């Protein structure tokens, strides 16, 4: 089984559009959206028959008002100013401020503060016109995005094994933080989408170094390459100096925006970019096959 993770060092480089296009072209695959903080792959894939479960991570303090005498000890020990005393003389905890440190629970003399698991979002499986989609959403401020990404990858792998899928195609998060690190675990190939700008080059090199650290093969796609041919050439030269594969270039085109407005992938929308993206998929798929055989 192969696993391709599409990443970009920064947001807005075109990672999700490329992933959705690959999903339209790939065969016998499961699609997985690992950008749990700001998922958007579902906009293009239009998931149906969604089955969701709560994602629990950490704990949150909750006051049982009937037993609280309003002594205020919990308010005094809370470093996050999550505790207030209400007009009824009872303690109340703001869930948006509570960090789950458990200090108030441990020091409450009347043991009136519960400490249940915190619901931080959901994870789900859906049907799409391109096959199963494993996806999730972390609540704003929710903790443990890396753990949620690992959960999605495990669910995708188990489903692929049960149903005989040969490929897991993942849309990763931008940047190099915890969810990206988690998304690289067990992957066959990282496809890095960048744009020929100073920030695009800088952030591409950061995520490429992260892949190097985990000894994960990578292929680079330069999106909107014609808006700055000199910077695109510098990216290719930097990749060649480190032995990194450049899968190819994509030109700037308003068809990307028009396809998104129509809620279609680039191969479905058609036009010149459809042929370009098909060539890139052939190159990425061939590289993934070679990497899988080399393991």
Highlighted features:
single chain, 295 residues, alpha/beta, Rossmann fold, Alpha-Beta Plaits, 2 domains, nine-stranded mixed β-sheet, two-stranded antiparallel ribbon
Helices and strands in order:
Elements: E1 2-8, H1 15-25, E2 29-33, H2 41-45, E3 48-59, E4 62-63, H3 73-77, E5 83-85, E6 91-93, H4 103-107, E7 113-114, E8 117-128, E9 131-138, H5 145-163, E10 167-174, H6 178-184, E11 189-194, H7 198-213, E12 218-222, H8 229-241, E13 245-249, H9 255-261, H10 266-269, H11 272-294
Parallel strand pairs: 1-10, 1-11, 2-9, 2-10, 11-12, 12-13
Antiparallel strand pairs: 3-8, 4-7, 5-6, 8-9
Helix pairs in contact: 1-11, 5-6
Summarize the entry for a quick read.
With 295 residues, the chain is of the alpha/beta class.
